[in-house]
């Protein structure tokens, strides 16, 4: 490990921190070496080859090919080392391990809103367990923000209208700074918070601390799925006007134009907000767009619900409750229910 030479450096509290620092110090060392080399040669040469008599004229110098090759090959090799090393770290940052603790982030002027799968929500504070990979799926309600945790050496833009992800494994229990690192308006500098890294048992206790309203994210999504009457068309028996959503998540989907897309977060989000963009083969573009009718947080709840619809274990009864009756008469009947006007309240009474 690198010694703590400078108090300027933040603590190293994630598995990525040492790797990022090693690369950074390598770049620093290479830059320092050439700065010293070039600066000393400038000073030395200006004395060694200074004009000694008034009428002295410089002599033309033709360098040898060996010198030319050296100053081409050495920098090329050095920059290639930087490229391969940097790419390796970059790809590691971009590829989370298969098992992660997932947390959703919705940023807005000027706060970070975090949603845990169990339903816990927090603002400008994120609780995570130590030693476990945590994946953040992030989007913005307004402008571009950027989540930055110096102690973890992670930083990623948060963009409106799209999901970006970042992951980390915290290695030390403690509280660490969290910053917005993209100028996002007058109170950008106040868009800060903290990451609280806890022992796994402590974290579990915090998770079950009773701050979750409306149950898990998936169950909140399930309720929304019924409140918005999605269930009318997306029936589980294959007789609905919309595609069956059971077992859909993560699978390839055939569209009317013949292309295949993977049903990931971005696809599900787009299909809720702007369903006509990608119509599933064999279906009509009759679904109304929900753009402006559901919040980013509600979209995330719906995505979690769709994710929870696993085809492998239909007998557990978690897919669609038995007492849920389709609102409309189904195929061939009246058109599908229209979404209610205006944003959906958090917990509408029906
Ligand atoms: Cu959000 Cu700067």
Give the topology:
Elements lengths: L16 H32 L16 H30 L6 E8 L2 E6 L4 E3 L1 E5 L3 E8 L4 E5 L4 E5 L5 E6 L4 E7 L11 E7 L1 H8 L9 H11 L2 H4 L18 E3 L5 E3 L2 H9 L22 H13 L42
Parallel strand pairs: 1-5, 4-10
Antiparallel strand pairs: 1-2, 2-3, 5-8, 6-7, 6-9, 9-10, 11-12
Helix pairs in contact: 1-2, 4-7, 6-7
The structure holds dinuclear copper ion.
Dinuclear copper ion binds next to loops.
Structure description:
This protein is of the alpha+beta class. The protein folds into 3 domains: 2-46 and 64-93; 101-209, Immunoglobulin-like (Sandwich); 217-308, Cytochrome c-like domain (Cytochrome Bc1 Complex, Chain D, domain 2). 31% of the residues lie in helices and 19% in strands. It contains 7 helices and 12 strands. It has helices at 17-48, 65-94, 200-207, 217-227, 230-233, 265-273, 296-308, and strands at residues 101-108, 111-116, 121-123, 125-129, 133-140, 145-149, 154-158, 164-169, 174-180, 192-198, 252-254, 260-262. α1 packs antiparallel against α2. The longest helix is centred in the first third of the chain and has 32 residues, at 17-48. It is elongated, with a radius of gyration of 28 Å. The model is unreliable at 313-350 (pLDDT under 50). The chain binds dinuclear copper ion. Dinuclear copper ion is lined by residues 110, 145, 180, 182-184, 188, 191.
Quick structural gist:
The protein is an alpha+beta fold and 350 residues long. The chain is 31% helix and 19% strand.
């Amino acid at each position: 490990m690198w010694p703590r030479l400078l108090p300027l450096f933040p603590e190293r509290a994630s598995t990525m921190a040492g790797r990022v620092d090693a690369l950074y110090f390598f770049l620093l060392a290479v830059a320092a070496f050439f700065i010293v080399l070039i600066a000393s040669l400038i000073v030395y040469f200006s004395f060694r080859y200074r004009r000694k008599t008034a009428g002295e004229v410089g002599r033309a110098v033709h360098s040898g090919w060996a010198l030319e090759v050296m100053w081409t090959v050495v920098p090329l090799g050095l920059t290639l080392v930087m490229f391969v090393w940097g790419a390796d770290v970059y790809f590691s940052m971009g590829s989370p391990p298969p098992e992660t603790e997932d947390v959703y982030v919705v940023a807005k002027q000027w706060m970070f809103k975090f949603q845990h799968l169990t339903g816990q929500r927090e603002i400008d504070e994120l609780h995570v367990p130590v030693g476990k990979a945590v994946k953040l799926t992030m989007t913005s309600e307004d402008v571009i923000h950027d989540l930055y945790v110096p102690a973890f050496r992670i930083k990623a833009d948060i963009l409106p209208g799209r999901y970006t992800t970042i992951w980390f494994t915290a290695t030390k229990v403690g509280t660490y700074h969290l910053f917005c690192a993209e100028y996002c308006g007058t109170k950008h500098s106040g868009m800060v918070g903290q990451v609280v890294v806890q022992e796994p048992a402590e974290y579990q206790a915090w998770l079950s601390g009773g701050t979750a309203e409306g149950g898990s994210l998936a169950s909140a999504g399930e309720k929304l799925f019924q409140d918005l009457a999605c269930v009318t068309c997306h029936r589980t028996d294959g007789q609905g006007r919309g595609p069956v959503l059971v077992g859909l998540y993560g699978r390839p989907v055939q569209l009317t134009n013949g292309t295949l897309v993977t049903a990931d977060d971005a696809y599900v989000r787009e299909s809720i907000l702007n369903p006509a963009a990608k119509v599933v083969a064999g279906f009509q573009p009759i679904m109304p767009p929900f753009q402006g009718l559901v919040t980013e947080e509600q979209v995330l709840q719906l995505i979690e619900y769709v994710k929870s619809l696993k085809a492998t274990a239909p007998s557990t009864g978690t897919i669609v409750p038995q007492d849920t009756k389709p609102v409309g008469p189904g195929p061939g009947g009246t058109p599908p229910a229209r979404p209610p006007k205006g944003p959906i309240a958090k917990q509408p009474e029906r």
